[in-house]
């Protein structure tokens, strides 16, 4: 069996190269029109080996939507992830045919998930944890004030995505931090509870239509509750970190 993410063989017994593998070409056609009948294992011509494909996204339930008009909504993210999943399946199959890797060196992409490693997990409150993810030295994540990212977790043969705003400053280099509150009945919370140092988390972005400009307003009043403090923290850090920004800010 081949590891579809790394392109490395999981077993040393099979010395077949990527170019020697035969593929089921009908599978690519299925990706265009449906999802339920796409197997997560792509058998080769003689059925002796399989290629593992990514887990499909888990469709949200109606109760997962808060109904407050979020942009994007959890259902919007699901549709985006479904499209990305199809693209990932096609790319893996195509790259394995050609013996190519799928790395372009960019830190973030709106249409493709990139992996970042957890280097630190710190409990901040009874049910809130700070997760530090590693970036290349002297590199920042590339967000601007007002932008967020989408995190994907893959488990139990399906994937789940949610939006998060890093609480580290947008100019932070070498790492970025996520402050996440875990809920006893939260679906994504059950996945995040398993995150440990050394694990790799999948991220795509940046997203967000809010664009803050220094000194655009004389005074800002920010209203936030619970996890809503994260995007407000990003704005506050941006103002305090800019000596030329004279904006007064009040967070309530």
UniProtKB/TrEMBL annotation:
Tell me where in this chain the FAD-binding FR-type domain is found. 111-213
Molecular function (GO) terms for this protein are: oxidoreductase activity
Q: Which residues form a coiled coil?
A: 75-102
The record's section on InterPro entries has: CBR-like, Cbr1-like_FAD-bd_dom, FAD-bd_FR_type, FNR_nucleotide-bd, Oxidoreductase-like_N, Riboflavin_synthase-like_b-brl
Q: Which cofactor does it need?
A: FAD
Q: Which PROSITE patterns match?
A: FAD_FR
Q: Which domain of life is it from?
A: Eukaryota
List the Pfam families.
FAD_binding_6, Oxidored-like
| Assigned protein family | Belongs to the flavoprotein pyridine nucleotide cytochrome reductase family.
Give the protein's recorded name: FAD-binding FR-type domain-containing protein
